[in-house]
Amino acid sequence: MALMEERPFLSAQWRHLAMVNYEVDPGLVEPLVPRGTELDRFDGRCYVSLVGLLFLDVRLRGHRVPFHERFEEVNLRFYVRRRVGAETRRAVVFVRELVRLPTVALVARWRYGERYSALPMRYRVDERSATYEWRRGGRWQGLRLEAEGETAPPPSGSEEEFITEHYWGYSTTRRGTIEYRVEHPRWRVCRARASVDCDAERLYGPGFAAALSRPPSSAFLADGSAVAVMPGRLLQD
């Protein structure tokens, strides 16, 4: 009998990704590394990324949810890996994720143990720029990227490839480490000029505030694609 293919928990289009990347001391994120994983580095350097993106045609278990089919998200993430036999699973870990829909935040916290918060948000995107903003502490904050150069597949071994090509996610919960797979094709990217206005100390903590106050190591726009987020599972010790 043929095995049934795993059905995505969530499917969507992720589009107009704006990615601002900062080199940080590994000690900043090591306390947040989920059990069973280790930091993933690029040329020995540790990165966090502030990422804005647009969710389109969102479906849970193949079904549209009224009023939840289109929304923006901003997240701060870093990179880990887990070795499973001969396979290396390269992954992201989210420090915090912002959305404007409380139900999305609730489901993500419940299903994957992710640190979602719901805030008023807005966005503006076109083919050469992307702006994502949220309102907190009585004012609008956000990030804006403007393209420099042409969009193309990331060169093999490049920083762009490292940042965009992590196809797993891990999160820490009271029950242990949750692992889930994210499927999407390779994205095309374009280097960009970035401006960031973020009260990082209140959102992420003093260490992240210091890191995000410096000029980023890089910034780029990614076109995005259809994605499928598979159901999470609890790692066994």
Structure description:
The chain is mainly beta. It has a single domain, classed as Acetoacetate decarboxylase-like (Beta Barrel). 14% of the residues lie in helices and 52% in strands. It contains five helices and 15 strands. It has helices at 26-29, 102-112, 159-164, 200-204, 206-212, and strands at residues 10-24, 38-39, 46-60, 63-64, 71-84, 87-99, 116-118, 121-125, 129-136, 139-147, 168-173, 176-183, 189-197, 218-229, 233-234. A seven-stranded mixed beta barrel has the order 1-3-5-6-11-12-14. Strand 5 and strand 6 form a beta hairpin. The longest helix has 11 residues, at 102-112. The radius of gyration is 17 Å and the shape is globular. The two termini are 31 Å apart.
What attributes characterize this protein structure?
237 residues, mainly beta, Acetoacetate decarboxylase-like, 52% strand
Helix and strand succession?
EHEEEEEHEEEEHEEEHHEE
Biggest sheet: strand arrangement:
1-3-5-6-11-12-14
Unreliable residue stretches: none
CATH architecture: Beta Barrel
How would you name the oligomeric state of the polypeptide chains in this document? Answer: single chain
The N- and C-terminal alpha carbons lie at a distance of 31 Å
**CATH-assigned fold name:** Acetoacetate decarboxylase-like
Number of strands: 15
Q: In the residues, how many domains can be counted?
A: 1
DSSP helical segment count: 5
Give the helix/strand class.
Answer: mainly beta
Helix content: 10-25%
- Principal-axis shape equals globular
CATH top level assignment: Mainly Beta
CATH superfamily: Acetoacetate decarboxylase-like
Overall mean pLDDT: 91
Q: How much strand content do the residues show?
A: over 45%
